[in-house]
Amino acid sequence: MNRKEQIIERFIPIAALETLTAEAADAVPQPQLLQGLVAVRQVPFRVGRESRVKKVNGRLERIERPKMDDREPNNDLYLVDHGQLLNISREHLLIDVVGSSFVLVDRGSACGTKINDEPIGGEDQGGTRSLNDGDIITVGTMESPYRYRFHDLRGFIVSLTPGR
């Protein structure tokens, strides 16, 4: 693989999470949200709750995450849970590829995860299910407002031939 192919591979997402509610969009850090979409560029893609928040005018706001020396962060996407009762665990779920299929793994979350309203995990149990294009992921309980549509983008890469 040449250098330009390596660069393109780092920028082109293999999947995306589409926000389906205002709360879902509001939970995502603004730099990671583009027109209601979160890019998934590598797997495993880990999602969890942002625990570094403060109240500003009665509203939860993120505190800038300090750079951790040589340690990797626990998550690729940190969501702010604005609810009175928390739906999102600090290490909630991950999206991965097994063979040629996407899977969603609940990482032992307290409230669980739903794919098309089918529960996975919860009560710190964890669990794994296949994840298909168009599936609806609910992070937390059935009443959770943190809902995202999964889009498998593999195979949709447009040729980047110069002059086209």
Automatic annotation (TrEMBL):
Regions that span the bilayer: none
Residue span(s) of domain FHA: 45-120
Protein name according to UniProt: FHA domain-containing protein
One matching Pfam family: FHA
SUPFAM superfamilies, per database record: SMAD/FHA domain (SSF49879)
Organism this protein belongs to: Desulfofustis limnaeus
